[in-house]
Request: fold
Amino acid sequence: MKKLPSILAIVFFLSTLSLIYVFVFKGSVVETSDNRVGIELSQSNADFALKEMRGFLESIQQINERILNKDSEQIYVAARQSGANVVHEAPQGMMASLPIGFKKMGLNVHAKFDEIADSIKANNNFNYAQKELNTLLNSCITCHRTYKIEVRN
Ligand code: HEC
Reply:
């Protein structure tokens, strides 16, 4: 009879592992017609994600304009507003829907905005800010090539 508790422990362990796999690594993904990985999100989570994207685009435009105007203080402001400090605003439950690759790329983009803010403050180097902006744009492109959003009703 001693075996039963250990079997239960193993079953519990394996189901915990599979939950971790689904919620931390796999996310809620589906195949799509254009061969990107579709991420299933509720309407409100999709709205949140796309609003954040539009915020990214605004930051990019502002940083670019302020590089031309050589306005380092305002580059700092525009970059910070898409930095890692906004990650905690993501709605509860949304993180579990996102595959690990998407989460990594998303966090990486927030970190790159922070790098632009930090380096313009430290060095006031507009050429360098433009290089960083270009690297950042390549990250946007990579993610858009890989993933799309599928609203789940
Ligand atoms: C982690 C992945 C990821 C990163 C990084 C990313 N995006 Fe997106 N973005 C998406 C997905 C997925 C969509 C939805 C596209 C679809 O369903 O076809 C999207 C949509 C958008 C949209 C459309 C918004 C709307 O209202 O429909 C804009 C604009 C956008 N992204 C800008 C950016 C910019 C600018 C960057 C870089 C600073 C960026 N994104 C980085 C994944 C990403």
Observations:
- The two ends are 47 Å apart (CA to CA).
- The pocket of heme C is lined by residues 50, 53-54, 56-57, 60, 102, 105-106, 109, 136, 139-140, 143-144, 147-149 (CB under 6 Å).
- The chain has a mean pLDDT of 93.
- Residues 62 and 78 are 6 Å apart (CA to CA).
